[in-house]
Design goal:
The chain has 307 residues and is α/β, with parallel strands linked by helices. 35% of the residues lie in helices and 26% in strands. It has three domains: 1-100 and 199-219, Periplasmic binding protein-like II (D-Maltodextrin-Binding Protein, domain 2, 3-Layer(aba) Sandwich); 105-186, Periplasmic binding protein-like II (D-Maltodextrin-Binding Protein, domain 2, 3-Layer(aba) Sandwich); 220-307, 2-Layer Sandwich (Double Stranded RNA Binding Domain), CATH 3.30.160.40.
Amino acid sequence: MISSLVIASRESRLALWQAEHVRDALAALYPAMRVEILGMTTQGDRILEVTLAKIGGKGLFVKELEVALAEGRAQIAVHSAKDVPMELAAGFRLAAVLPREDPRDAFVSNDFARLEDLPAGAVVGTSSLRREAQLRSRFPALDVRPLRGNLDTRLAKLDRGEYQAMVLAVAGLKRLGLAGRIRAALAPEESLPAAGQGALAIECRADRTDVAALLAPLDDARTAACVRAERAVSRALGGSCQVPLAAHAVIDGDGLWLRGLVATPDGRRIARAETRGAADDAEDAGVRLAAELRRRGADEILAALEG
C-alpha cells in the first residue's frame, strides 16, 4: 500500500480546487495515506499577453506537471480534461476521469441576460477559438475578443467594463462558488462544448501500475466513455488550440450520442456531424464522427487554417 502521495497542480485558484477535490476523495478512500499538493506555475500561466493558440496550446499547462511526475516529485497530476493534449507524452497515462460537472458554456454579463440581448458592437471576451467561432457564426455583429488570465482576473476585467459580456465554462464558475455570475447556460445546440469540458482527469506515469490501481475507484465509467469519444474526434482531426473544434458526448440509454464540429475562426464555415454508438466502444464512435466531419467539409476548413 502506498503510504503517501503527492499531487502536482497548477497554482490558480481553480486548479488548486481541483487538486484539493481529488485529495479529499483519496483521503476518504485511504484514510491512512498522506496526500499533499505540489503547486506549480506552468508556462501557460506565465505567458498571458498572447492567446494560447499562438504559443503552443493548452499543453503548456501540462508539461511542467509531467516533469514533476517523471522526476518522482509527484505521483499524480490533476488536470481539466479539456486541457490535456490529445496525444499524451510517452510514458504517461490518464488513470482516472472523475464524474463530470456541467459541461456547458456560460454567458456572463453584468448588464445583459442573454447573448441575444447584446447590441451590435458589444465586446464579448472568450478564451477559445471554439467559442469564438460559434459566437461569430450566430452573432456576426458582436466584437469578439481574446481573453486570458485565471477566472478571477477575467471577471475583474468584466467588472471594470473592459467587456460587456464573456463566455466561460459553467464548471469552473460552479467549482469556485461563482454560479451566481452565470446569466445563462448555453445549450450544446448554441455552443457545443470542447472535448473533455467539465471533467477532471488524473495523470500518472505509465509504469506506476500501483498508483493507477489506487486511482481506479475514482474513475467514472460513464464520464470516461464520453471523454474517450470526444478526445478520439479531436485526435483524428489533429485538434489543438489552433483549431476551432468541439466534441461533446452524452450517455443516452445504453448507448452514446456524440456531436462534433470544426469551424473557421470567423464562424463563416462550420462542418457539423453527429453519431451514435456503444458506450464500451467510445473511441470507435469518435473516429467515425471525425470521418463524417471530413466528408462534410472539415478537411477544407483544416487546410485553410494550416495555410
